[in-house]
Amino acid sequence: MAATFASGAGAPIGQGMSNPATPATASLQVPADWRDFLALTKPRVMSLVVFTGLCGLLAAPGHINPVLGFTAILCIAVGAGGAAALNQWWEADIDAQMKRTAQRPIPQGRMHRRDARDFGIALAVASVLIMGLAIHWLAATILAVSILYYAVVYTIWLKPRTPQNIVIGGGAGAFPPLIGWIAVTGEITAMPVLLFAIIFVWTPPHFWALALFVRSDYARAGIPMLPVVAGEAATRRQIMLYSVGLLLVSLLPWWIGGTGAIYGIAALALSGLFLAFALPVATRRTAPDGDAMRPEKRLFGYSILYLFALFAALVADRLLLAAA
Amino acid sequence: MSRPDPSLDRPAAPQDTPLRRARRGRNRALGLALLFLVVLFYAITIVKVGGGS
């Protein structure tokens, strides 16, 4: 692990890295702009992280002072930003080979690689320390685990090695509602673990739908995503399997009595629709070259909407129950 | 014989180079972030001391 870790450190890409496709870093005499540092934190991904973390915090039983609640969400966001920066530091040479990621600051030569690493470490350490000092250390410990899970277990270890990378790595994105909940209650109970499980089971069909229509990108970059390694047919079957699993897991919070009927009905409707979007993807044969991949793109788009709507329903259910 | 241009004796005004612009933007962003942290820590302290947690 240490040798692997060292191989990606230090030098700006194009100077000492093996990838010849990486653009030259001629503009590095100019320090990176603050916007490039902001881009390193993957703001769009962070919006989902902040939203699910906030929903965990709002749905938890109990009360938290608004200043401390804001601080907890800020720490979750900053921690996610730090993990994203470390991900881009490590994967700069892979990003340069993929259309979807080639515009990021390091592959574009707008930022020195070690700046991204230092920035990521600074954000990660600051978020964990502030969470520990201001909220409590259980939430801080889980935040630290989530950052290490994403930056080390997923990015460095799993992603380049196994087609199950998304399945196990999905845990990294599942932590925010758990942390938000624990920030309020200070303990781990069944409900926050179920919220974790929902995102954990949601991640594979979400990412595999994307992987199906950017498959050639992943193949070119040498990432062993399921469609690249096991083929399209196997990926489509797995998408269906996880979509059925998602329906069951999303109903568990209602089934154990952790939520009311509003959440239960919303989970049933949203997860049923998820299955409806997954079905045409699962029943399709291998797409021919030049196929627009519409069912896969529709499933990917809906999967993002699904998570927002499901967690919004969770909060609405809790607030309405509290008001009643 | 004409006199030399007096403006030549003055030191050249610092140019607004991309390097200076980038540094200035970075320093401002860092300053704002630090200011935000000071205000946040102050608010957290008030809440904690006041028993608002």
Task: Provide an overview of this structure.
The complex is a heterodimer of chains A (324) and B (53). Chain A is mainly alpha-helical and 324 residues long. The N terminus of chain A is likely disordered. By secondary structure, chain B is mainly alpha-helical. The radius of gyration of chain B is 24 Å and the shape is rod-shaped. The mean pLDDT of chain B is 78. The interface between A and B is medium-sized, with 14 and 16 residues.
In short:
Chain A is mainly alpha-helical. Chain A has 14 helices and no strands.
Biggest sheet layout of chain A: none
Compute the gyration radius of chain A: what is it? 20 Å
Order of helices and strands of chain B: H
Q: Helical amount among residues of chain A, as a percent range? A: over 70%
- CA(first)-CA(last) distance of chain B: 82 Å
Fraction in beta strands of chain B? under 5%
Helix content of chain B: 55-70%
- Which structural class do you get from the secondary structure elements of chain A? mainly alpha
Quaternary state, please?
Answer: heterodimer
